[in-house]
Every structure is written in structure tokens, then in C-alpha cells.
Amino acid sequence: MRDTSTVWFHTFGCKANQYDTERMRQELEGRGARTVASPEEATVAVINTCTVTNQADANARHLVRRLRRRYPDLKIVTAGCSTAFREASYRAMPEVDGVVAGHDPGLVAGQLVKLRLASAGPVLGGVLERNQRGTRGWLKVQDGCDRKCSFCATRIARGASISREPAEVVAEAKRLAAVHPELVITGIHIGHYGHDLEPRTTLAALCAEILEHVEVRLRLSSIEATEVDDALLSLLASSGGQLAPHLHVPLQSGSDRVLQLMRRWHTREAYRSRVFEIADRLGDFGLGADIIVGFPGEGDQEFEETRSLVAELPYTYLHVFPYSVRDGTAAASLPDRVPGDVAAERSRTLRDLGVTKGIAYEVSRAGTVADLIAEGSGDRVAGVTGDYLRADLVGPVASGARFAAVLHRKNGRLVAEAPAPAVN
Ligand code: SF4
Description:
Layout: E1 6-11, H1 15-29, E2 34-35, E3 44-49, H2 54-70, E4 75-80, H3 81-85, H4 87-91, E5 98-99, H5 105-114, E6 136-140, E7 142-143, H6 154-158, E8 162-163, H7 166-177, E9 182-186, H8 203-213, E10 217-220, H9 230-238, E11 246-248, H10 256-261, H11 268-282, E12 286-293, H12 300-312, E13 317-322, H13 340-365, E14 369-375, E15 382-385, E16 390-394, E17 402-410, E18 413-417
Parallel strand pairs: 1-2, 1-3, 3-4, 4-5, 6-9, 9-10, 11-12, 12-13, 16-18
Antiparallel strand pairs: 7-8, 14-15, 14-17, 15-16, 17-18
Helix pairs in contact: 1-5, 7-8, 8-9, 12-13
Bound molecules: iron/sulfur cluster.
């Protein structure tokens, strides 16, 4: 084995994938490898891939080929969702030296052992000990999904929903909170957290347990509106901002006909009424959603049902995606494709609506107090509020500092006064 292997990691995709890379990093460093910031310093590159769209697959393969051209001696190991979903195609790539169909850090280490770039030995596992880059930390509590959305390859790549034991999650949260003032609870379908555990538990119970033992701001990553149960809603309403008043609740479509074609389990009205119950209980809170426009079968009327629902609900931002065919999913064979220019026009309409609603919410928050955490480094430090607004900070403040400040709106931007530095 080389005396010290140097590893360069590249991660595509979501927070769960970012977290999985951290686990791979910790496992390899525990076996003597050293992480480097660029491929030219590395003996091996570990590419953690994403498969959310055909383009995501293509991006990963493109990176592999580019690395091989520029660094002929670099060993390349691919892992992640695209590798799990398209394993044979990665095995067929002459540029790839090792393939891991998934995210298992032990299997990634096994590939480096095979390449004589890491020492063999038992999988280290355990909680994530090592600090993660960035002010916010990812806390993955669950993997996989038991739902069957017709457009989704992620569930195929990641398999059934599997939850981590609460005690392990709490121990990891304690460790990470020593470095990160905010932890983002992530996974693939966190609303089903604990359903597979004996005894069965819930996301609300897990969050309450973390907040009981760990001084940190928790933020939920994406969660289905219909899976925000009353216990979780109560915790959001009563935690004093320790569970950030922010929900990202995928809508995908506001048309029942399209929701059925997507094989979503909820109706337009079930989503709508749950969001209004949440809004009544929380008052000011950040509300975002993923929406797919141009899904096969989406006519003008179906799109109007989506647009009118978006107009009605108290969103503060939106993520709008024109549908892109995902080979290997049920939706890929659906008829009534929507022309690209029509989908693009619909995206513009919703994105503009999202921006308008976002500005209106910022204006409503101006003059009120916010719970901010300073994020970023150097002259790019900004404040992120509990309800997921970004404010420019006036005055010196250390990244990671948490403070309350009044929000103001200046020249179309949110601004907050950083607290005066303590005088010794
Ligand atoms: S809920 Fe649907 S979109 Fe989300 S991971 Fe599961 S199958 Fe995919």
C-alpha cells in the first residue's frame, strides 16, 4: 500500500449525499488516507453520484472522463445513487477503477484496499466524529423511501426506508453541535423516520429528544406536508426556534389528475388543508416547495390548478423544475408529453410567483426580530434566520454566531445589525 493515499471527494446532489460523503471521508481517514482539496494532489478520486435526472447521470460520467483525460494516473472510484441505478454502465467505463453501487463507506474503503490505497480492517462506522465543512451540519437520520412516485429514481437507487437508532442520532448530534450551531435533519423521506424501528417512533420524538440533550438549532430538510404530524407541529410551535420555523414541503403538482399520474399518495385538498393548519399554528414561518411543471398529461387546466394553489398558499420561496424524462422510471413511458417551450413558460410563471411571494414575506418581516446564525466566511458572512431568510449583516460578526436582531429592508435586500462585540 502507498504510505499515505490522498483522496479527493466530489459530491453531486442532495444533503443526504453530502452527508454520505462525510461518512466515506471519515472511514478513509480512519484508515490512514488524507483528504485533499483538488484532484491534482490526489492519488484517488471518490465521486459520489446523483441520479435525480438523466442530466445528473450525464454530469457524473462527464466528470469521470474529464478527470481521466487530465490525470491519467488518478484512480477513480464512483459511488452513490447514479452508480446504484446505472451500475453496469459504470462498470463498463474503462476510466473507472472501482464501483460502489450505493453509499456504504465500508464498501468504498474496500475499493481503495483493492487498489492498495488504504489499509484493510474492520469498518470503523459509529457516529460522524469529524467536523463537516460549512456553518450548518447535516444530520442524516434515515435513508431510502417506501413511496412509489412515478418520476423518481432515487427510491430505486436507495431502496426501502431505513431509520437510524435514536440513541446514535442523538450522540452524533451532540458531537456535531460542538462545531455547528445548526444541524439540518436530512434523509430521503424523513417523514417516515422511525416507522421501521422496534419500538416504532417518530420524527417528532427524535427531534424532541435531540433538543432535550443538545444545545443547537435544528432545521428540517424536505418533509411531506401530509407527514407533518400534530406532535411535530407542536414542537415547531413551542420550541422557541430551536426547531427552526421552516418547512420545505414538496407539492409537485396542484392537480389531482397529475398527482395520480405521479403516483403521489395525497390529494390537492389534503396538502392544501394541512398547510393552512400549519400556517394557522405557526404564524411567521418559512415555507418552500418543490414543483414539477410540464409533467406528462399536464394540460392548461391542470397547470392552472397548480398556479392557483401556489397563489393561495403562504409560500416564501419555491423550487420549480420542468419535468425531465428519467429513464427507468414509470413516468418515462407516460403519453401526452408537454412541449419544452410550454414547460419553460410554466416554470417562468411559477418562479415569478415564488419571487413575488418571497419579497412580500420579507417586507412583512421588516421591523421584526429574527433569530439569526451568521454563515459563510471572510466578507461573505450573511445571517440565516430561523424562517429561512438571508440577511446582509452590518458590523463584524464571527461565522457561526447566533443572535437576535431586527430585520430591515434596504434597497430591496434584508439587512440585520450584528450585535456589538462584547467589551472585556
Ligand atoms: S417520496 Fe416520492 S419523490 Fe420522494 S424519494 Fe420517495 S418516491 Fe422519490
